[in-house]
Amino acid sequence: MIIMSRFKHINLIIWILIDLAALGVALWLASSILHSNVRLAEKDNQVKIMAAREEELNTLERGAKETANDRALLSSYFVDSRDVTGFLDSLESLGQEIGVRLDVQSINNSSNLPPKQVNPPTTKQTNEPAKQANRPPTLKISFKGEGAFAGLFHLVKLLEQVPYELKINKVSFSLGTSSVAEEGSPDWTGSFEVELLSFISNPVK
Prior knowledge:
Residues 108-137 are annotated as: Disordered. This protein is an alpha+beta fold and 205 residues long. The protein is built from five helices and six strands.
């Protein structure tokens, strides 16, 4: 009986050890699976992030291509300081199309003007130079036009419709020195001063 009892105890211990070993293997497998799932999730997130970045780059590239014409058109609405002559030529061509002879009197680039200081600045005026320095450059053009009154009036309307941000500072009409033009209508003279606000000033290098 004692031998049988010892044998049962040994078998019980063996089964307990086997169960513990099986439990350890199960825990190890569960831990391995958990770590594998975590690594897979991290890789999946990295793939998603890379795909999202690639999609953003593709979207930016498509947007750049789609807006290329718009950006080129927008750039044409600004006059570069290196292309002032071209702007003046287009202005004279505009006058020729409507039968008005234009003569440019003066050109004034505001970015080249020194700051005006008549009196020492007071406390309220100390911020004025900074405000003036932050103002964008403009190009003031004074010119005269000669032709029929209808042509000069038409010129004003065309200036209001040019694809530039143009401010008309001064317009005045007067009867010209020649009493009769070639077509038999009175010859008029117009004095104009316009300010080109869509002007980009480039420093001289």
